[in-house]
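Section handout 9: paired folding examples.
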Amino acid sequence: MVVYRVCNRAVPDASAVRVSDLTIGGGVRVWLEPATAPSPSNWVICHRLTRQLQLLGLHAEIERDLQGLVVLGWSLPFLKHRARQLRSALHHRLADFTTTARAAVVHAAQVHARHDAVGEASVVTETCDFIGEQLRWPGRLADLDGWHRHSDLPDLQIALAHIIGLEAKVAQACNEHLVYTRVLATSVCRHITAAGDHREAQHRVLAAAAPWLRASQMLAHSRQRKGDPLPLVPGGPPATLTERLIAVSVTPHSERAARWS
């Protein structure tokens, strides 16, 4: 259940969170069981859970005894807030490939330095997990897997459709960041193996990636202004990440001659 996955992410102690359907009204009740290990107070946990559910666009109310909360359904103001959060992610963090590249290169080198015997695949996997946590949205969207969202009210139907579309764009952007992360982490491992110097490997990888990062920034800002990228072939599907990067980094000879003549 999505509500349980979201609450479990907010409160890592899975044994402390329980979820059940309400018999009346079609809502969901979330309640807390005593934790075996020291944990924040119920007041803190309830407000944390409420905030996470509100970020999904749901209306949740805390019970008076602070033993749990009740999820009553969709809230148009909270759905609009989620749309703003998704747009903000697309326009800021997910449009910033330079921060991802630097973090990925540094983390990959650190993992390699801590575990000399670890394989390249392990370094890449750990670095991708690290970047995914930094981006935050891959985990958030994974919690929604298989969730069919609907409403009988026209205003909520429109809001939900808009949010689902934004989530698809955020998922695509996150995937592009993770593609870069895999490529950069792999390159760091191979440079370290060849040169044996972690700092020099980081410098070389970032220097080699600079043109691609600039192209990605330009593409991200262009996509914000104009929507989805245009197809490379008229009538074809939107260009993929690799196709777009090659397109912006290679200038046709005739165009280059005309531009500089």
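Moving on to protein 2 of 2.
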Amino acid sequence: MIDSEIVINEKECLPVNRLNKQQIDWFKDATARERDTFLAKGEAGAIELLDADGMMKVYAPAIRGHIIGEPKASFDEARHYAEVRLHPLQIRANLNGEPVDEHALGITGFHGEFVQQAREENLRFKQIIHLGSELAHCNGLLPAHLLETLQSIVGENREQLQEHLPLFLLDEEEEDGHVGQLGFNDSVAKDQAYGFLVCAETPVPQVFNREQAIGDWDYTATWWFYDETIERIWAQARAWCQAYLVRRREVALQV
């Protein structure tokens, strides 16, 4: 395998992310019940550290990035310890019934999870467009770069997006493009479709080896998504990427 190639769907035992600054600050002042509820929604894993001498790697058992015990010699040992501790936490959280609005508090930790998932699944966002801020500054006609992007979305991807955006109004074959753009703006305003339009991409697998797929970022497959939040789009992009790899594998094995 050459340097630029990557294994697309290889599963690794990666350490979990630590709590971010906002989560740490909130955690300090949270009640015991709030902490239980917060941790119970996470996963058991391990955080990689150096031992007291700074010479050897050790692994601290952690739940949702919060260390819950002394470091262990192996990743598996630390993760098992965390898994054993997670179950009673989940039971207590269910009994407590005290919800924590993580979005309002800004402590979801989504972006840390985003990075880890992107790395593991070889998926990234190639382009992010916030339609609300783009359309707020146009007088009926779309900015040239936005119009070009919307017109470039074709095929099945375009058909799916038309559930949210009237892309047919922007067809280059239309005699009066200005009328189409004005109609697009009016339709978006009526539906308040001012969310995010995002292009996701993943390497096209060139070689399948047992359960692995090998490709590189010089040759990628892309797909556009629309939704109100980046979190929802990321979930859709992950599902698309997994389904895409399954289809590519099926085609490759039929040859």
